[in-house]
Amino acid sequence: MGEALKLLIVEDDQGLQSQLRWCFEGYEVLEAKDRSSAMAQVRRHLPQLVTLDLGLPPDPANASEGLAVLEEILAVSPETKVVVVTGNDERRHALQAVSLGAYDFYIKPVDADVLRLIVDRAARLYELEQENRQLAQGNDSPLNGVITMDPGMLKVCRMVERVAPADATVLLLGDSGTGKEVLARAVHDLSPRAKERFVAINCAAIPENLLESELFGYEKGAFTGATRQTIGKIEHAHKGTLFLDEIGDLPLSLQAKLLRFLQERTVERLGGRNVIPVDIRVIGATNQDLGQLIRTGDFREDLYYRISEISIDIPPLRDRAGDPSLLAHAFLDRFAQEQRKPRRGFSSDALSAIEHYDWPGNVREMENVIRRAVIMADGQRITADDLGLEPREDPEQLIRLREARDAAEQETIIKAMGRTNGNIAQAADMLGVTRPTLYSLLDKYGLR
Ligand SMILES: Nc1ncnc2c1ncn2[C@@H]1O[C@H](COP(=O)(O)OP(=O)(O)OP(=O)(O)O)[C@@H](O)[C@H]1O
Asked: What is the whole-number distance in angstroms between the Cα of residue 287 and the centre of ligand 1?
């Protein structure tokens, strides 16, 4: 169970107020007796649920004040479920309230059990809607596994979506750790091959002589140690997708073999005589400058054209606007949860350092830095020092923001004081703060 939902009871009849209070065990009950106290409670607590007596002072015989409160509540907190309570002869007001957005109505005299039932149902609906909102936010991510808000990176995501359904070869170009494998998987997942295998092989990590048998497989006895028939990655990916990471590191001899495969779409296992047709989509990735490798004769131009029917440039993390802190927060949450550590935030020098650091290792480096900090740091907030980054203040930006905030705060307080003719209690209610807070704000701005 999460936290108790907040229920605000707006009722001017003191007796009824305390009677209702007792029948809502399990909720955090708040009370108000008129429009201004109701709105103060709404602003301060944003209750998920409200029961609202439509007959409020100054005109309890009429529903106008109650309906005005309803509209004001829904303007401040549109998700709040409001149940209006009204007298027996005021059905039409109840209907009017529902048409204004109230969740339901209830006609007096009050039967606590029935009212509780209605409120419980409203609570269930609120929670369901909340869950849906969260799900919808989750689905907002541009591509599965990709966190970004940078326009350049979003373009990359759109491009992945567009090329995925086709069978064209895709070449992903980007520095190490920029998410090439994540994007290759996204291409596969969005393609008609999604239900088949995604087979990845890192061409730089395997010595040349092994790489050939890894890719093409071998028959029993093909070489010393080949004790049984083994199929290669290409065949293994049949009907699915083969991801050739670090394709720029593929030795020239294998480049020729790969090119032949791409032209003929068949493989022969090492030491074998059979020609085996294989249906795969190929995605390549590299952080090397293939143009340069072609010029120096280290990469075949004809292979380059085969594998780059579509080529996608992935920007480095330092060029993605806003992404460093967005990713940092996402990783902080993820690792805190994994390590069962309390959720902490970043200090402002940490965020500034994150924004200014160059991130040569890109997203992978960010992941490592945050993971380590979550394990090692023990303060309230994670600092630049915990991250092992140079602390940075961005004084100009901080001051501008603070100045803007102060100016807006001061103006709002002056307005509230003016409107209430200097009545501290009313002004505090209007602003949704406590009286002591308002006093200290008045002191801060010399308004007392
Ligand atoms: N935009 C992103 N949002 C969230 N996580 C990401 C993002 N980009 C990369 N990652 C994560 O960063 C790590 C590195 O990504 P990935 O392995 O795809 O990079 P790469 O470019 O293939 O690296 P390399 O060139 O070193 O093979 C992975 O753990 C991946 O999940």
From this structure: 13
Question: Under 8 Å CB-to-CB from 20, ≥6 apart: which residues?
Answer: 9, 11, 51, 110, 112, 115
57-82 pLDDT, tens digit per residue, is 888 888 889 999 999 888 777 789 99
CATH class of 318-387: mainly alpha
Domain extents for the chain?
A: 6-138, 151-315, 318-387, 395-444
6-138 shares its CATH topology with 151-315: yes
Task: Collapse the DSSP code of 88 into the 3-class scheme (helix H, G, I; strand E, B; otherwise coil) and give the result.
Answer: coil
Rounded Cα distance, 409 and 437, in Å: 13
* Nearest alpha carbon, ligand 1 atom 15: 179
Alpha carbons within 13 angstroms on the beta-carbon side of residue 13 total 16
20-50 confidence digits (pLDDT tens): 888 898 999 999 999 999 988 887 787 899 9
> What is the atom index within ligand 1 of the atom nearest the CA of 202?
27
Tokens of 287: 């952080």
What pTM was estimated for this model as a whole? 0.62
State the ipTM, two decimals.
Answer: 0.97
- Distance from Cα 333 to the centre of ligand 1, integer Å: 17
Distance 363 CA to ligand 1 centre (A): 6
Domain topology for 6-138:
Rossmann fold (3.40.50)
Question: What is the CATH class of 151-315?
Answer: alpha beta
Closest protein CA for atom 10 of ligand 1: 179
Residue closest by Cα to atom 25 of ligand 1: 176
Mean pLDDT of the chain: 89
- CATH top class, domain 395-444: mainly alpha
Within 6 Å (CB) of ligand 1, which residues are found?
145-148, 174, 176-182, 245, 287, 363-364, 367
